């Protein structure tokens, strides 16, 4: 049964929830909904934040051993420092950390490193990427 009441895609088909507008879901764990115009806010657990901090610190050490130009090293050091600083806050903004780690990955790729090469040399990048929802 499908109802038309002035709003597109609103009705009861006998399963799930159909909504005609934007849907906002807050503070959940795991994937709750898929589709367009759906935003989910997930609060990471304290364990996830601690794992993220550790992986960022480990990644910082691993990146210092890479053979990169001084310009690329400076860019990566800046992004790494900002990501670590954000992770150390009482309520870190994961999107800011994610953006910094994505910048690091892009800088490494621009320097000629492949995804396979990056993940082999920097094992911690896999952990950080997984925790931040970044696909390598």
From TrEMBL:
It comes from the Archaea. This is Uncharacterized protein. It comes from Methanosarcina vacuolata Z-761. The lineage of its organism: Archaea, Methanobacteriati, Methanobacteriota, Stenosarchaea group, Methanomicrobia.
